[in-house]
Queue: 2 jobs
Job 1
Amino acid sequence: MSEEDRGAGMRTIALMKVIAQSGATFTLSELAARAALPPSSVHRLLQPLLRAGMVERAAGQAYRAGSEFLRMASSVLRQVDLGGLGRPILQRLWAQWEETCSLCAYKPASHVAVVVETIQTKHPLRFMIEPYTELSLTWGSLGRAVLAALPDAEAAAAIERPGLGPLSGQPLASAEEMAAIIADIRQQGFAAYRNEQMDVAGVAAAVFRGDGTVLGSLGITAPARRLHPEMVPAMAEAVMAAAAELSGLLGYRA
């Protein structure tokens, strides 16, 4: 391979990195500025990417990531070890709060969230969450964070699943009550749950794939007697930042 070919290859790789980090659409001049390349070079490098479906024309003079680019990214992400990817983020969250921190993946077929990674609190009094535990979407912060991120029809199907609360035995909240809960979560960006009777509380936020669909949730769970209501705003900020970081690693751009 000639020096010129190697140079073109490196510039193409740099350009694809910029495309992956760009918004829904971008112009040639924006790509040139972000990649620190002359517009003429970017135009030349885009041509094989356009032919391969890695980049597509958008409205006006804009471009966007192509279907082939998205297909390849999706194939790679399906092979990602979600627990391994999220573990360092959970560890930092745990170091800040020293309460049980968990990461869940959503299972659309059964409308449940499955714990894929968890770090238990060091406190003797704890709310235990074991790996591979299936969580209801209508109870607790981890499940409700996922529920609120689902399309309305899918959220309604999850709410219709019969059953009592997994811990308290309390009946499911009414459709009106759940609609209000979902609206609050969507507005504030996180789910907060508190059950004084069962001494459990938690804060969680949704994790998204690169295509904007919900992948699962990430959050903190603790005894209600230790997770005081005045702690929720700061904890929610930390949880949302952690969920946004993991979503970003998965290719999501809010």
Job 2
Amino acid sequence: MSSTPALRYEATYDDLRALPPHLIGEILGGDLIVSPRPAAPHARAKSVLGSDVVGPFDRGRGGPGGWWILDEPELHLGRHVVVPDIAGWRRERMPVFPSAPFFTLAPDWICEVVSPGSQRIDRVRKLPIYLEHEVAWAWLVDPIARTLEIFQRTADRWTLVAAHGGNEVVRAAPFDAIEIELEGWWVPGGHDPADDASPSG
């Protein structure tokens, strides 16, 4: 007797709309991915990081301007609905800010602030989607490890072009026109994993 395989359920936009407001929903490869609102270290890093780039690059205060930078924009990229923590578009690519509640034009830069619960999804599920849709730059920020990884799209792959951490002052592409003090992203007085490293020599 033959059996009929179960049909795989493909999540729909109605599934996202049915979620309560305290949850963040995404559709990745047909799967509904639901995440809680971020914990304090995540929220701190995202808020301060956003303020560091919005002033100089979105508003042109102390920097070159030329970007639209948004917190948690909803991106409709093919069959995927993705919500990066922060994303930015060069205004030369998106000269008119859209009035729709979501974006179909892939951003030029995304930033994911990873947590123990989101890191696998951010790295394994979301980065390939951003690559497929030709996002040029991706930042992964880990507020627990206190690290910033900068990836650039080169042909069909992500290339890690720089990694920073702790209290470094950095010029981080594509926002390397200014210096950024990473110390401000981390929860003050929190534990720095570098303190656990054994001294060399």
